Amino acid sequence: MLNVGVIGCGGMGRDHIKRLTERTQGAKVVAVADMVDELAKKGAAVAGVDCKIYKDAIDLINDPEVNAVFIITPGFAHKAALLLAIKAGKRIFCEKPLCTTAEDCLEVIDAEVKSGKHLIQLGFMRRYDKGYLQVKEAIKSGHYGEPLMVHCTHRNPEVGTNYDTPMAVHDTAIHEIDVIHWLVGDDFVSAQVLMPRVTKYSHSKLQDPQIMLLRTKNGICVDNEVFVNCKFGYDINCEVVCEDGAIKMPNPAYPSIRKNAAAATTIDTDCFVRFHDAYDAEVQSWVNDAEKNIIGGPTTWDGYLAAITADALVRAQTSGAIEKIKPAIEKPGFYK
What we know:
Layout: E1 2-7, H1 11-22, E2 27-33, H2 37-47, E3 52-54, H3 57-61, E4 68-71, H4 78-88, E5 91-95, H5 102-115, E6 120-123, H6 130-141, E7 147-155, H7 167-184, E8 188-194, E9 210-216, E10 221-227, E11 235-242, E12 245-248, E13 256-259, E14 262-265, H8 271-274, H9 276-292, H10 300-319, E15 323-324
Parallel strand pairs: 1-2, 1-4, 2-3, 4-5, 5-6, 7-10
Antiparallel strand pairs: 7-11, 8-9, 8-15, 9-10, 11-12, 13-14
Helix pairs in contact: 1-2, 4-5, 5-10, 6-7, 7-10
Protein name: Inositol 2-dehydrogenase/D-chiro-inositol 3-dehydrogenase
Domain Gfo/Idh/MocA-like oxidoreductase N-terminal: 2-119
InterPro entries: Gfo-Idh-MocA_inositol_DH (IPR050424), Gfo/Idh/MocA-like_OxRdtase_C (IPR004104), Gfo/Idh/MocA-like_OxRdtase_N (IPR000683), MI/DCI_dehydrogenase (IPR023794), NAD(P)-bd_dom_sf (IPR036291)
């Protein structure tokens, strides 16, 4: 049994506690931590009566009963918890982003490499989605030739007035940044952002929609439409155009309903519904891999690549230019 401590008991934190407690085999939440006492109590209530409550992450990490740590705090707090957990030798699941700056990501990479143990998995759940997995397998088969282009959409019904232009990258497109890198097995080398006419549903601090363009080392061109006030649903699409065919990710399987001289199919309105099964699968895989003492999912290096790609897109939002993407260091052999 993997004894897990969860740091961060907000909405997503409690959702993961529920997942670990009710839908994951081989794991038990034995401790929670949150700086907000009320949130910590809510998290512990989901885990069960024997769950310990801590205010400070360091106390949870140093609890000898805790074998592994879930980090579900805001991104700015990730680095401190990650470094403490690495020092303690604890297995770690960290929700994206790895850190909020590329420099902090490199500091975490350095600590993990020096520890000599693969400890960190990033929470990029789309790699575990059935549709993306089917696309990945089709590409790997070689039947359709090499990938040439990738077309994506990431549409949300609406966002609040606290959501600004850079968040379209850091909070939204970050998912495509990782999953497309994984799908085509190629690193990004440049980024550009085009700004179409702004929707009437946006506000003064948000350019919406945006078209984000990425190019890989081997010349694959990726276009990602990010439209976070589309109003009609949470609409995620991906099509990989190859030399001998095009591979389009299937939509979730909802029935087509015909009524009143119209045909309609449901579109999800929430990411936690759309990717419910993917969230469950990534956590179960992380727990299963603990028995083998491996990290089978997105690594710390993947988190760093996502961070520098996101930084380039944010620069491109203001410059309008094609921005280069180049890691500050060579990929350590530790991650190869």
